[in-house]
Amino acid sequence: MSESPYEIVIGLEVHVQLATQTKLFCRCSTQYGAPPNTQTCPVCLAMPGSLPVMNRTAFQLGMKTACALNLQIPNFTKWDRKNYYYPDLPKGYQISQYDLPMSQDGFLLITDPKQQFEPRKVRIIRAHLEEDAGKSMHDEAAGKADSRIDLNRTGTPLLEIVSEPDMRSPLEAKAYLTELKLILEYLGVSDCNMQEGSLRVDANVNLHLQTPEGKVATPIVEIKNMNSFRAVERAIAYEAQRQYEIWLETKQKIGDVPKQTRGWDDQAQITRGQRHKEESSDYRYFPEPDLAPVTTTDEEIAAVKAQLGELPRQIRDRLEEQYKIPAYDADVIVNQGQTTVNYYETLAKLSGDGKLASNWVQQEVLRVLKERSLEIDAFPISTERLAELVKAVAGKEIDGTRAKDVFAEMLDSGKSASEVMKEMGIEKVDDSELENLCRELLEANPKVLADLKEGTHKAVGALIGQAKKKNPNIDPGTFRQMCIDMSAKM
Amino acid sequence: MSLIHASAAQLLTQLESGEITSVELTKACLAQIDAADKQVGAFLKVMRDSALEQAESVDARRKKGEKLGRLAGVPVAIKDLLCTQGETTTCASKMLENFVPPYDATVIAKLKAADAVLIGKTNMDEFAMGGSTENSALGVTRNPWDLKCVPGGSSGGAAACLAASMAPLSIGTDTGGSIRQPASFCGVVGLKPTYGVVSRFGLIAFASSLDQIGPMARTAEDAAILLEAIAGYDPHDSTSANVKTPAYSQSVKQPLKGLRLGVVKEHFGEGLDSEVEQATREAIHVYKSLGATVSDVSLPHSKYGIAVYYIIAPSEASSNLARFDGAHYGHRTDEAAMLEQLAQERAALEAAGDEAGLAKLDTSLVRMYRQSRAEGFGPEVKRRIMLGTYTLSAGYYDAYYLKALKVRRLIRQDYDAAFKNVDLVIGPTAPTPSFAAGTKTDDPLSMYLGDLYTVTANLAGIGGISIPCGFSKSGLPIGLQLQGPPLAEERLLQAAHMFQTATDWHERRPELS
């Protein structure tokens, strides 16, 4: 990496919408996209007299996530009120967790198969449950300054996952988010749909600089409103450079100015200062008197842990070990999600060649899925049929290039590999036929033969094209080796 | 005895036997309201038509031999902070003057299921904050025993309507003594159950960890019948107690053999009116004559009760009342006028080049909140919101709120220790009888002391009952308070009933012209 005049220090706060059917404190649906204010009841509208009742499923999804992130789950947790005024917060307070969150002190391991950064253990301070607020829609057209409020989202269960400022580059931040999202998806605790706001990220960013007077830190800036991981990466990179320039100009250190909140403008690719929220300095937290504290036994926690299943990191390790594939391959496959892993594993087992199966999944299957915007469940070629083709390639019955033609035909015709191969006249060339072809061509090309005898192996390349013309079924690799071997004896 | 003076128990017997109809009874109550409520002002709203309809329906169903609910045909008055579907529920506040809830509180639903006749909504201190019902923004309630005097509060209307024979039963709420103190001032029975015995769902919250709904009646037996109808676990209230509701109406008449009473030493100190003290001591003698043993108990931390209460209750209130911001329901300021005013202020500041003033100028949203709340809330509510906001703020939380929570625990421990040796504790309900209206309104602290003996039960979450035990020389009722361990409502009601079998204070009625 190039020498940078500063070190970027990044902590992330991730809000995850938990995949419950109903809200955190009432039985209203959490379905996305319904007409405004149709999924509301006295509780989520904060009608006078209404009382919250906890959704146990939301708590269990929180526990599951906490276990997967190596967080400690205490036996006793409670709810608190976070008081502030905003039109989309109908109660005037948000039910959240303050001093006794449902989980704390965990970590997430991030690695980069491309080795652009060292493996890092990002500590997680806490993950706590809270309810979402509603949505304000400002219509300032025609100078009307009209605002409308949709409370459908009010009371939707969120898990807020807060990391320590342990990340040191936008790339690391992206890796953390990618791995976190993957875990949440594997656990099935959230759909992680960023467009629908199921996963929202705030980043706390500042710089550490080496100066003649020692190490200094710049004021922390919280960047809000990022709706993609790419935006997070770019916003942090932008913010780092901006802070460096400000520092050069003002020499402001942490503590000199209050923490600033900035928003990411994806169109302009810059962060902009946001107006300070009213009374944001003091939320007057206190224990929520309308909800009983939640107690959890060690047995319950153990049961949740036992039901976690394999997590992405474990699957990667296992794939490497079991199918003898490189870390990079395992990473690509696992990052596609559980269904792709299942597809790959079946293919690897049926074809008997883990590495070849991995190549086919990565290069061909994923390409087709992307081109056709398909999910792996909808991939037209079954593992059994693809395995037949991979097996043929592994057994050198067909070379890679022709196999791709077969694959393309299978994709659209729905025929099996053997059917297509038969139609295309593809069959394994037997050794004697290959030998004859080899001898014939070497004899017809004395110059090539001479080169080969001198050890210039690349000379054989000139023959492969001719060989394929005579018999399209030959395997170029085998042919090449045979020519080299034969030339030595000629 | 005429219908309006009869107990609910008697009325239920008469209704069941067909001696009277619910329509007759309801009409008698409505007639008494017409006659007396101009002077008393117990009701904010009389639900005349719906009450009569309900009475007719009960009578018709009874005629057909249908199985009816436990309170079939008996009028019940409702403190106006229980959400009642389709009926204004105001909390005696301008903020909710026109608020019509789209749902029923659990207690209302239970009363409807018991076929009670909901006769009207009673007056109260605004958002249940006060001890005299003088804080109501929507009406004045007087004490039926002396119209110059207050009925107590905050369930002043709920107590006064019973004393003035406008209804045989009523529902009150008690956050620091708001059922027991007005019961004491009006000479009726008021029970604050253990926290969680009655669901708070649909009760417009004042201080969630202290609020409890309870029955008010003229006899302990009636209170038992009403409590039985409204108590019970409610899945909509996660603080409600998941216990089986005892058959209070059955057990109330069983005398308590070997009842051990503890006289709270701290309740007989400074500030206790001598007539109240005398009446209380005589009441203790009555219990002795009924076979109870009496000993002294100490609740050493009770002296901090008022201080702790006035930290915890306003803290919770400041948060609970945040939802009244003009945005979603309730009072909103006249927006056009507000925006116009804001524009004028801005123009003036701009003309003066006052940058600092401009920077401080409200946004229209903040002005809408500020003005809606300023107009909607009365002075006592504002006072408590400010108190609570202060005690919860970052720099003061530990010194006030957290410390108050710790003392609250000590108060509960005092009770736990006392109940190891006695079954119930006994003492005065309030330090004085009722007082003349207007005499304490300028002195909130002296008003707050009216809850001196009641507030600790709310802090400890235990039950307490007030029953009439005498009268002052000027003819004002005096109340006796019994408090029990958690979930000892049966015992409280039995002890109260015992007293009422030996005395007739509860049978006296004020003379209203």
Tell me about this structure.
The complex is a heterodimer of chains A (490) and B (513). Chain A contains 15 helices and 16 strands. With 490 residues, chain A is an alpha+beta fold. Chain A is elongated and about 95 Å long. The two termini of chain A are 53 Å apart. The model of chain A has no long low-confidence stretch (mean pLDDT 91). With 513 residues, chain B is an alpha/beta fold. Chain B is built from 18 helices and eleven strands. Chain B has helices spanning 8-17, 22-40, 48-63, 106-113, 156-163, 180-186, 220-230, 248-251, 274-289, 305-320, 335-351, 355-360, 364-376, 379-392, 398-418, 444-448, 455-460, 489-502; strands at 43-46, 75-79, 117-122, 169-174, 189-192, 212-217, 260-264, 293-297, 424-428, 463-471, 477-484. Chain B has an eleven-stranded mixed beta sheet, with helices on both faces. Chain B is globular. Chain B starts with 7 loop residues before the first helix and ends in an 11-residue tail after the last helix. The A-B interface holds A 42, 45-54, 81, 83, 85, 87, 90-93, 145, 149, 278, 281-282, 284-286, 289-292 and B 81-83, 89, 91, 96, 99, 101-103, 105, 200-205, 207-209, 235-239, 315-316, 318-319, 321-325, 327-330, 364-366, 369, 389, 392-394, 397, 401.
Biggest interface pair, counts: A-B, 31 and 48 residues
Specify the number of helices of chain B.
Answer: 18
CA-based gyration radius of chain B: 23 Å
Radius of gyration of chain A: 30 Å
- Along the chain, the helix and strand elements of chain B come as HHEHEHEHEHEEHHEHEHHHHHHEHHEEH
Helix content of chain A: 25-40%
Amino-to-carboxy terminus distance of chain A: 53 Å
What's the total count of β strands of chain A?
16
**What's the number of helices of chain A?**
15
Q: Briefly note the structural class of the backbone of chain B.
A: alpha/beta
How much of the sequence of chain B is in beta strands?
Answer: 5-15%
Biggest beta sheet summary of chain B: 11 strands, mixed
- What fraction of residues of chain A sit in β-strands? 15-25%
- Find the structural class of chain A using helix and strand composition: alpha+beta
Question: How do the strands line up in the largest sheet of chain B?
Answer: 1-3-2-4-6-5-10-11-9-7-8
- Low-pLDDT residue spans of chain B: none
Largest sheet of chain A: 9 strands, mixed
Shape of chain B: globular
- Give the distance, in angstroms, between the N- and C-terminal Cα atoms of chain B: 18 Å
Shape of chain A: elongated
